[in-house]
Design brief:
Elements (H helix, E strand, L loop, with lengths): L1 H15 L15 H4 L8 H14 L9 H10 L6 H11 L10 H21 L9 H10 L6 H11 L9 H23 L3 H10 L5 H4 L5 H13 L3
Helix pairs in contact: 1-3, 1-6, 5-6, 6-9, 8-9, 8-12, 9-10
Length: about 240
């Protein structure tokens, strides 16, 4: 069933059109308005196949998939995400109450998001060894307009390289996409003085920074250090 699901997701992505996540980071993929009502564009055959998969992992039959059920569904496709990343993926697409679990429409959106992110990962993996090293990451970020130093790159890698092997696997790359959106928010805040997107995305991801740090301009180095400190407390 996992193989079938991956194929369905690839097909489903074609029909989403505007689902964000391509090229590492985009306009704003954490925006609930962006993530709502997208799956209505899916052909009936595609939605039917996704529905079968959704139903198979909706163990209690309540029409929602909770974090444990989503973890099982993703593992069936060969993906092994940390619980924190599972929860953040749910927050990414969970735009309708009750919050903390996703319905079928939201599941379709998440499927398309993961497929888009996989395409970005494969594009950045230039030597096609199934992982992204620091050189490949730096080149991919530069191609998407992120001009960062080698020190900042190492800080980013430290945030997501949970196994400490110096490379980024796909599951870690999904986590990276969240942090890249925050960096994009930071750049916008420092440019315009408007911190709305940054505050909303930090809240959605469950990352708490001191108010004093959010009220002033951050250097990227200081911001990454603050994020790492906040995240490290959870690990």
């Amino acid at each position: 069933m996992g193989h079938c699901f991956v194929g369905v997701v690839k097909l489903a992505f074609i029909y989403f059109g505007q689902i964000p996540g391509v090229l590492l980071v985009s306009e704003p993929f954490l925006n609930s308005k962006t993530m709502s009502n997208k799956s209505t564009n899916l052909p009936d055959a595609v939605k039917a196949n996704l529905k079968k998969f959704f139903t198979a992992f909706d163990k209690d039959g309540n029409g929602k998939i909770d974090p444990g059920e989503l973890k099982s569904a993703l593992e069936a496709t060969g993906f092994h995400f940390a619980p924190q990343v599972i929860n953040r993926m749910i927050k990414l697409v969970n735009v309708r109450p009750p919050f903390g679990s996703i319905d079928f429409e939201e599941f379709c959106n998440l499927s398309a998001y993961l497929d888009a992110t996989r395409k970005s990962f494969d594009s950045a993996d230039t030597n096609k060894n199934g992982k992204i090293d620091m050189k490949e990451l730096g080149e991919a970020l530069l191609d998407t307009g992120f001009s960062i130093t080698s020190t900042q790159l190492k800080k980013l890698l430290k945030l997501v390289d949970m196994d400490g092997n110096g490379d980024i696997q796909f599951e870690e790359f999904v986590s990276l996409s969240f942090y890249l959106k925050l960096i994009s928010d930071l750049f916008e805040k420092n440019k315009s003085g408007n911190a709305t997107s940054l505050n909303e995305d930090l809240s959605r991801l469950g990352i708490k920074l001191p108010t004093s740090q959010l009220s002033k301009d951050h250097s990227l180095d200081d911001f990454l250090d603050a994020i790492y400190k906040a995240e490290r407390a959870k690990w």
